[in-house]
Amino acid sequence: MILANTHLHRTLVDQGSSTDILFKPAFDKLGLDEKELRAYPDTLFGLGDTPIRPLGFIPLHTTFGKGIKSKTLSIDFIVVDVASAYNALIGGITLNRLGVVVSTPHICMKFPTLEGIATIRGDQKLARKCYNESLNLRELSELDLKYETRTAIKAECLTDFVAEYTGDQEETSTAWELYVDGSSNKVGSGTGIILVNQEGTQIEVFLKFEFPASNNHAEYEALIAGLKLEKEVSTTKVVAFSDSQVVISQINGEYQAKDPNMRRYLEKINEYLGQFPKTEVRHITRELNSRADALSKLASTKPWENSRSLIQETLQEPSVMKADTKIDVLEVSGLDLDWMTPLIEYLKFDILLEEQKEAKKIQREAQHYTLVKSVLYKRGISTPLLKCVSTSKTEAVLDEVHNGICGNHFGKKSLARKVIRAGFFWPTLQKDAVNFVNKFQPYQMHANFHVTPPEEPICVTSPCPFAKWGLDLLGPFPQVPGQVKFLIVGVDYFTKWIESEPLATITAQKSRKFLYRNIITRFGVSHSITTDNSTQFTDSTFRSFMASMKIKHQFTSIEHPQENGQAKVANKIILAGLKKRLQEAKGAWAEELPQVLWAYRTTPHSTTGETPFRLAYGIEAVIPIEINEKSLRVRFYDEVGNVQAHKEELELLPEVREQAKIKEATLKQRMTNSTIKGSFKEASPQTTWS
Question: Most buried of 289, 469, 626, 650 (most Cβ within 10 A)?
């Protein structure tokens, strides 16, 4: 347990206690000041024969676990000045917050984290020592005696005391028999481990691998994991059994380990065996090792939910590196890790920088990061996990989002936000986005100039998506193959979704076909359509079609001021996007149109705070940068889970649309209130291609 950036030992876990206690000696050793204590009005019972008046309480950030499998909570510790063998006491409320399962016989507790199940094991010798000291303190209190720390004793007095009271003590030894077996198949790999002591106590563990392993490698991993368990139970004699003839013969020196990976495993095993006073490694038949064999098959094939009575663990990576693996095991995304290196070293190996100030900074920042299969991710707010990008790749990511297939030469803030929405992060993202846009010449040439609107904005809201559309015409453009030189545009008032189609001629028949084919058959029959007074929209062919579909036809005129210029705005966006993408090659505008529309549909809008794609389909579109750099949802794509997650997103879509509607109405109201009536100028004529 880490308390106030200090590893704290001698912590008592008491599920029956309703409070968390920090004893005064530990409070002083942590360097805390009594001025930081807050008043605690109640009296404590159960710490002695008489009620205890606390000195106060202090909130402290406390970390349980180690590395990526850890949890940090803010705990209000009650400070008491009472003699105790322990430094702190963790009560039932905090244990419930952690979701802890406690095993008192094994002095062990487990709790869930984002990276799997975390396990904390106590030291049996230290636990026994604390228990005995607690009994001694209790006996002294019953005799009305006060315990005081022993002062210095002369050497000869201490020698006489030891000679008089030290009797013949038998050397106690603990031996645990270790049975292991490894299994590997197409489904997965895993091991079974069984520990049995002289009293018949049995510990069963199955270990699942998150990496591919051969049968021999699985056998070695089983032995390594078993020897780690032997060390945790403080055994003095190891007797290990396995049914693998190859592995046992290599360990006993009967066979040679010629394979480089096997040699690495053998060196690792010998290193662990050297930590015990006495060791034996024996070969047994599979029949005598049937229980461990069953556990290994369980670990490599069965789901975890079927075996809750066993101790279950997951091994994320091999205990030794493969021979053809690079020495730099910290490689995550390219060779240049720069800012990520200290965080990965701390999360993966608990390594900190020598400088104390920088080390504390890394510890604080590491709480916001996690490792998933050796890849560093930042815990996001709008997105669960953001993939961290090294400095050498930041410009490539910005260039792909800004100038790629779905790029639209965004502004500085929009560029940074779209990178975040795509699932990527680095500390200088906003600064780099500003520098990137400032150096991009086409953006400077075609940047928008903010001026006073030519007419007073009128608040128009839509009751549901695709209920109200605006239609408009754009052109003429340079003629391209297919004889097309005009553009008809439709925009939904709520989602801001744009539909567009190049046309050779602009007639009422063409307008009717566009309305039916691009809007009605895709998005349903609309409640109303708003157009200007162009002949293509006032012709009897178009109006009769609208009447037959029972669609309300509204005009943008003085008598019908229902339209707020959204179709015109859509035209402006398309025109600006085409100019930015084409620059001098204006003859290819029809080919670039789908990419301009894609960029528009996948970019968040300030009016709603969402992309048109999400408001239309309930989820964000996958853009090319996510494929190239493998964002979180692409890297861990699961077909079944994706369908379920999509259904859940659709359940939440009405709420998302409602929030977007409220935000849009609020923004329009703010614009209306800030507009000075009477200062509007005559609207400029329709923009044409120049």
Answer: 469
